[in-house]
Each structure stands twice: as structure tokens, then as C-alpha cells.
Write a structure and sequence with these properties.
Length: about 450
């Protein structure tokens, strides 16, 4: 069954209202031919969601069955200010990503002693995840970078070059007339060296003049590169603009017998990295770059958990990722990066599945779908009911039962006053079960 047919016929409406939500089952489709996926044990899984019934009505393109998710936590994630990973931490992270089912992991250039040692160690771990090693086409030392990446056993040889006038000076101020020539040299050198998969990333593509950018794209298709990534390096695209750009790239490459796979690399400077990644897929991209917890330089890259769950829940795609492991690996990334997860970080924050509003909790206890669109257990989290400033008798009764306490109802008003006072005196901190028991037992 095709994706669109599955989503339409698989819908079961809750209730009779015209505004009723719809439950969808997320399932897999036909595999992407060129994907090097590790695959999950439950690739054909289905899970319930309760999403807007307008999502399907607004989907005006045919989405692919699968995309390749490329994790860049060890490369772009380490470009986050204050973040650094030891080799031992990278090895452990690689093993965890592999166990999660991540098909592709990117690491930095191997052209320096530290990078060479890391690339050699990681590429020789024998994991199912494919290794993508970077090189810089604009660098004067590009040949040595390519040699080092090849020697390390990279599965995917990546090279990048800036195409916009704003950024070309970072790689030796290569003039526009030399960009195509340099890419010719680098790609030819990679092929002669035995590169398995050649990928070219065009940095700052959205701020590059369209005629020149498409000329570069057309030439890359002509010389037979395997993958082309369009990088919104400064995060300055809107989803509409990025959709247009990727559509033009796809159209340009469609004339070739074996068009390269299109990838997208987006940044969150305007808070649109996730939306732009999805817009790119809608327009024809088949690879998305991500970082755990949304790490990455400046405002970061799309978060792995948000990309994976968005693709599966909203668009019915198969990511081959073990979704129930997302919380655990996000917590590990927070530990080794030294950057704690925001408590309201989608899917993986400590209190993202929590509520302290009395009315909300009452509605949730009557109907679990009242304030959630996907079960927390799908991604390894759990629902929490928290006592706080908005707590009323419904939450208090629930917590008293949960803690197996015997508290007369005539004491509720005094207890609620104490809870409110505690919340005002302890801003930014959730009231724990121990705190509540202490408050209840106050004379």
C-alpha cells in the first residue's frame, strides 16, 4: 500500500465532532534503494498517535517511504561553544548510535593528528552505521585530507565548498570561476583513490545566486557524485524558500539517469531548522543531518529525537530508529557534552510529559489523549503529574493516592496554601514527592 493510501485509509476518527482529532498508525514503506540503514528490530512497528485531522488535508506532496538520518553530534555538535568529547566518549556514543539504528554518522576531518586518530579508531569499530568523514574542497591541503579519510576506511567521503560570496573567503577566497574546477579536481581524486560514496556539501547555498548555484549542481550531477547536500549554514531560510530551493535542485538533477541523493543540513538561527528539514524532504531531499539534543554551532542543528518522531508520527515514514531509546541516548549526550537538557525540550526534557495544571490533569485522567498527541512510552519517556503553583484538589487527591497517604479532605485547603507558598519560594524547581510529604505532615 502506498504511503498516501495508508494514511488515508488507516485513519480512525475519535468522536463525532468535525474538529475531532485522528488516530494514525505509523508504519514502514518501501526502502530507499541507496540507504545504508542498520535497521531496527521493529521496522514495521505501529504506534498510536492522536494528531490534528488537518495534517493529511494539508499534505499536498507524496512523501518518501524512508530517509537517511545522518548524526553529526561528533562533528557539528562539538562545534557548540563549550562542548568537547574525548575519544572514549565518541567510541561509546558511536556504539549507542549504532544500537539505536542510526544509519550514518559524520565525523570531522582526519587531516590533523587528533582527527586522524579519532577517524581511524571510529571507522574500525566494525559497526553497521556508515562513517562519513569530512574534507574541505576549499582548503589548500584538500589532497592530504582526502588521503587521510581514505586511509581511515571512510564509507562516505564528504567534501564541502562555500558557494556564496559571503562565505567563500573562509576557504582561501576561491573565485566563482574556480569553484567548479576545484570540485572537478577533488571528486576525480576521490574516485581514483577508491572512494565508495562521494558526497559534496554546498555551504551557504541559500544565500548563493541561483543561476550559479544550479550550474554547480548540474555539473555535480554530470560528473556523477553520489550525494549533494544543500547546507543552510547560517539558518536564514524560511520553510517556503527552502522548499523552493530543494525543488529546483531536484528538477535540475532529474535529467540524469542516476541522480544524486539530495541531503539537507539546516541550522536553527531563526528557530526553523526542524521546519526547514521537513520542507526539504517534502521537496525531494532524502538525507537529513541531525545532532543529539539540537547541539551544533550557534543555535544548533535539528534534534535527532524531533526529526525521527516527526517523520514517523506526522508523515508515516520509517526511520529504522529504535524510538524507545531516544530519551536514554539524549541523556547520555547531555552528560558528555556538559550541557543539561532543558526541562521542556521536546520528547526528552525532564518535564516535557508533565503537568501541574489541575484542570489539565483532571482532563488527562478522564481521557489520556486530552493533553498529548503521542504516548511518552514510544520514545522512552513517561507521563508525570507534578505538584506546583497551579495544583488543586484533583492533583492533590491523585498524589495522595499515589503515595498511599491518609489525608482528610478538610486539610486540603491548608495543604494547597503551603504548596503555593513553597512554589513561590522555590522558583525554577519542581516540588518533589518528598517535599509534598513534608508539607502534608507539617503541623
Amino acid at each position: 500500500m502506498k504511503r498516501r493510501e495508508f494514511l488515508k485509509t488507516g485513519a480512525a476518527v475519535l468522536g463525532t465532532s468535525m474538529m475531532a482529532d485522528t488516530i494514525f498508525s505509523s508504519g514502514s514503506g518501501e526502502r530507499l534503494a541507496q540507504a545504508s540503514s542498520t535497521g531496527s528490530k521493529d521496522a514495521n512497528r505501529k504506534f498510536e498517535t492522536c494528531l490534528s485531522s488537518y495534517n493529511i488535508k494539508g499534505l499536498d506532496v507524496t512523501m518518501p517511504a524512508e530517509v537517511i538520518i545522518c548524526d553529526q553530534t561528533m562533528r557539528d555538535g562539538e562545534q557548540t561553544v563549550g562542548v568537547s568529547f574525548s575519544l572514549e566518549e565518541k567510541v561509546e556514543l558511536a556504539r549507542r548510535l549504532n544500537a539505536l539504528g542510526i544509519p550514518q554518522i559524520q565525523i570531522a576531518e582526519a587531516g590533523n593528528p587528533r582527527g586522524r586518530k579519532e577517524a581511524e579508531t571510529l571507522c574500525r569499530l566494525g559497526l553497521a552505521s556508515k562513517w562519513e568523514v569530512m574534507t574541505g574542497a576549499g582548503s589548500k591541503e584538500w589532497r592530504s585530507h582526502v588521503d587521510a579519510a581514505l586511509a581511515c576506511g571512510a564509507d562516505i567521503l564528504h567534501t564541502n565548498i562555500a558557494t556564496s560570496t559571503h562565505m567563500r573567503n573562509m576557504q582561501g577566497d576561491i573565485p566563482e570561476s574556480e569553484v567548479i574546477k576545484r570540485l572537478d579536481e577533488v571528486v576525480t581524486y576521490m574516485r581514483k583513490g577508491g572512494a565508495k560514496i562521494v558526497k559534496v556539501a554546498l555551504m551557504d547555498a541559500p544565500r548563493t545566486e541561483e543561476t550559479f548555484l544550479l550550474e554547480v549542481i548540474r555539473h555535480l550531477g554530470k560528473i556523477g557524485v553520489d550525494r549533494i547536500t544543500i547546507a543552510d549554514t547560517t539558518g536564514t531560510s524560511t520553510p517556503e524558500g527552502f522548499f523552493y530551493l530543494i525543488s529546483r535542485v531536484r528538477e535540475t538533477l532529474s535529467t540524469f539517469p542516476r541522480p544524486p541523493l539530495i541531503g539537507v543540513h539546516t541550522h536553527n538561527d531563526f528557530g526553523l531548522a526542524l521546519a526547514n528539514a521537513f520542507a526539504g524532504v517534502k521537496a525531494g531531499a532524502r538525507i537529513i543531518d541531525v545532532c543529539l539534543n539540537g547541539l551544533g554551532e550557534r543555535a544548533g542543528n535539528p534534534a535527532l529525537a524531533e526529526v525521527a518522531l516527526g517523520l514517523e508520527a506526522f508523515y508515516g515514514m520509517n526511520t529504522n530508529i529504535r524510538l524507545e531509546g531516544l530519551l536514554e541516548i539524549s541523556q547520555y549526550a547531555a552528560k558528555i557534552s556538559g550541557l543539561p537538557l532543558p526541562t521542556n525540550k521536546p520528547f526528552v526534557g525532564e518535564y516535557v510529559c508533565a503537568d501541574q495544571s489541575d484542570g489539565h490533569v483532571k482532563a488527562y485522567l478522564d481521557n489520556p489523549w486530552a493533553f498529548e498527541g503521542i504516548k511518552p512510552s514510544v520514545y522512552g519517556n513517561r507521563r508525570k503529574i507534578i505538584v506546583g503553583i497551579k495544583t488543586g484538589k484533583n492533583i492533590l487527591q491523585y498524589k495522595i493516592r499515589e503515595l498511599k497517604l491518609d489525608v482528610p479532605s478538610d486539610q486540603f485547603p491548608k495543604i494547597l496554601e503551603r504548596i503555593q507558598a513553597f512554589a513561590l519560594q522555590n522558583k525554577g524547581r519542581a516540588l518533589t514527592d518528598a517535599d509534598l510529604i513534608k508539607i502534608i505532615r507539617e503541623p
